[in-house]
Amino acid sequence: MFGRVYSSTLVQEAPEGFVGQAPYRLALIRLEDGSLITAQLTDVDADIEIGDKVEMVTRKLTTDGERGMIVYGYKFRPLIK
Amino acid sequence: MDVSIVGYGMTAVGEHWSRGIGELAEEAGQLALEDAGLGQVDALYIGNAYGGTFNGQTQLGSLIANQLNLDGIEAYTCEAGDASGGVALRTGYLAVASGAVKTALVLGVEKATDMVGPARVASRGVSLDADFESVNGATLAAMAGLLMRRYMYEYGLELSHFEGFSINAHRNGARNPQAMYRNRLRAGAFAKAPMIAAPVSLFDSAPDADGAAAVVLAATDVAADLVPRPVAILGSATATDSLTLQDRHNPLQLRAVKTSTDRALEQAGLSLSDIHVLELHDAFTVLTALSLEAMGVSQAGEGWQWARDGGLGIALDGDLPISTFGGLKSRGNPSGATGVYQAAEAALQLRGEAGDNQVRGAKQALAQNIGGLGATAVTHILSVSPE
């Protein structure tokens, strides 16, 4: 699934469960069907701009402690321009 | 039945490490009852957002009624995230307006400092969408960051264009003994502040705080017998938008703000030009800009212009005074209590009792409380009759 970055932010003050990943990029993505979706950006090397094309990938979102459940979900990564 | 505010009470906003939720509520509630000259009310409506997550405490109605020696009365919590205080006021208004109760105490209270750091950030995140936002690591500041970055992109703005909102808040908060951060903000400091969720920085975002505020409501026809200067509630309206930003047609349009503003003004029979004091939900500067646009004060893309020149136009002696006691940014944001602080501060302005923060000649005020990033908006229009 593909889309373009509608907006993004860099989360420095993270909630419990996400502290190990901070800082991380959270974005609103405009999908090809026109809908918006909230997701983290991943595999971002350089800076990412509004309008950049991204694709959905499956990634680990968080874990419930060392022995707890692992939560998987979708993130988006930049397409090579 | 018309409804008036006949008493108010507030605790200082800040970090009350040694006082519990019940003690904070007791102080504000007692001050409000004393101000109204009442020993008893018919009902108690609590505004509280995070008692369950911050404090592990729900059923605040019973807890606080008991603390105030109002044993046995109708009492319960009204919740809508950071708009909880506003919806509690709306609930109290409806109860008195309907004639179901003759007097009501509306009491907002929040005790945030029982938690610190990532635990508090996560606890506040329960007012976002759990399945589509929080699960991805979203926070309130992050969602505000998304709005702000898009707004800056669409209208070609820089960080410095927003600083006047924070400068104004701190300029007013510095004069308010109840405010949490009474420091002034120097021009230029805003754009250099540490980021929380870029472009939202520490100087852009309102601090979490402890505090309690209360107002006493009574039917307007008996209000004049109770106190010398009752404050009439001329308009009261709550509206909702989608909880997520992603489900909004245009996230930069705060539809709930527009709807609740329009309804409250229509009920009051007033227009924006009749409003002398604006207490807005300035949890983030972009929220102030977008609120001004949604209300119709500014055209789309122009709300930020009120921040020009250090916010001179929104100062106490400006064309449209905003956040007259420091707003959420400087007075502090005790989430579920914030909407009641706004109403109490507006009432102080209209009674002419605002001291160093007085807006001269203020006769009508608008107080607006927002939950999340505009998912709930509550607007109240208050007025005093000329002496």
Which features characterize this protein?
heterodimer; A: 81 residues; mainly beta; OB fold (Dihydrolipoamide Acetyltransferase, E2P); 5 strands; 0% helix; 54% strand; B: 387 residues; alpha/beta; Peroxisomal Thiolase, Chain A, domain 1; nine-stranded mixed sheet; two-stranded antiparallel ribbon; 13 helices; globular
Describe the structure.
The complex is a heterodimer of chains A (81) and B (387). Chain A has no helices and 5 strands. Chain A is an all-beta fold. A 5-stranded mixed β-barrel of chain A has the order 1-2-3-5-4. The radius of gyration of chain A is 13 Å and the shape is globular. Chain A starts with a strand and ends with a strand. The relative contact order of chain A is 0.27. With 387 residues, chain B is of the alpha/beta class. Chain B folds into 2 domains: 3-116 and 209-226, Thiolase/Chalcone synthase (Peroxisomal Thiolase, Chain A, domain 1), CATH 3.40.47.10; 124-204 and 234-383, Thiolase/Chalcone synthase (Peroxisomal Thiolase, Chain A, domain 1, 3-Layer(aba) Sandwich), CATH 3.40.47. Chain B is 35% helix and 18% strand. Chain B contains 13 helices and 11 strands. In chain B, the strands form 2 sheets. A 9-stranded mixed beta sheet of chain B has the order 3-2-4-7-1-8-11-10-9, with helices on both faces. A two-stranded antiparallel ribbon of chain B has the order 5-6. At the A-B interface, strand 1, strand 2 and strand 3 of A face helix 5, helix 6 and strand 5 of B.
Summarize the structure.
The complex is a heterodimer of chains A (81) and B (387). Chain A is an all-beta fold and 81 residues long. Chain A has one domain: OB fold (Dihydrolipoamide Acetyltransferase, E2P).
